[in-house]
Amino acid sequence: MGTDQASRLRRDIGFFGASFLVLNAMIGAGIFALPGKVAINAGMLSPWLFLVVGVLFLSVVLTFAELASYYEKTGGPVIYATEAFGPLAGFSTGWVIYLARMTAFAANANVMATYLASLSDVFAGDLARGIIISAVTIGLTWANVLGVRDGVRTMGVFTVLKVTPLVLMVLLGLQHITGTALLPSAPFVVDQLGGTTLLLIYAYVGFETLAVTAGETSQPRSTLPKALVGTVIGTGLLYFVIVLVFVSIISEDQYASATLVDVGRALAGTTGALAITLAAVFSIGGNLAGSMIAAPRLIFSLAEHRLLPQWFGHVHAKYATPDRCILLMGAMALVLGLTGSFVKLAVASSVAVIKHGQLQFHGPPEELLRDMRGKSWEMTIPSSDLAEVRDRFVISGSVRTGDGVRLRVVGSDPPAAGARAVQPTLEDAYLYLLAAREPEGR
Question: What does pTM read for this prediction?
């Protein structure tokens, strides 16, 4: 292995830098819309679900913390997979995580440009979008080439700018929290448990990239485990109070469309909405800064383990950074970000639905949605009728309201006299096709 090159890396990441890496990997743009998505199915229980999943997730975090205490070299998951299962597993693990981080960087750079465009027409248009993506990508790339300490400092600035508005929002929202909101008396019922659980898990993923930077972390065997466990616990508590304020301020009928920007607007008017929107921009910036630190080290580690050409294992003589890997990451992310290739892939130009080995549909999403017109319905029923209705119809969504339960149902005919047709979604279409040719009422 290229241990001579690896030994030239500087251990400039301390406890706070490691904690910032975990925090920014977990808290990106998702938390600004996630509370409403979870509250649709869990209502006032949402804050507690974030805590419960966080506690359960600690078992995974503690496993990574234990592994991190064994190694002092750059690589994290690459090292773990290589030593446990061999070079092929190590290569696959490192390459897949790198591609995921790099494409996510490109997509999030586009999201940042979209947020800025919503603030002012100055940032709107393809030219402005290209300038924003280029400036952010090139700036973060160069900062990281100049030294891991500069990369961490840049990430630290983004962290402070994104966390401060969220903390202020929580402090302003505390006055709206009631005993009922804190300890709801409603029965413990969560609609669409599987989908809701995936959303909650999404809120906690990303911490695993911290171990990649072990080779540049001061006293990694003690710093990384403490940063991992401490930051995940702190982030879980922050999620709890944010979602608690959300459900205390936003009414049930607005859960589906509301975001934290609406909470900011309710608390402090236009200024509050602007502050939370900027927090979202800085949150994405922090996420991008963390990715630019961690992802190139995956390529460097693969080269260290001779799973990639040694050219990728080069360390800059002056700045002591894996400069070639950082430049590669920046170049690939910039190309994808500017061309929108990843966005097009993420949206998908073609959709296929297979049931029992038979192709039910293949074509563009627009055609699938066009075929679903007049087959998506919405109606409100008493809570006591929910079990019976679930047995009779295909339900794609539900929201508990003061009048009962508002259901989204898919089917060729109206499910009830008072049902109204609504705009179909891809999820509606998927469920409709899976239910096709089955007996009426599932």
Answer: 0.73
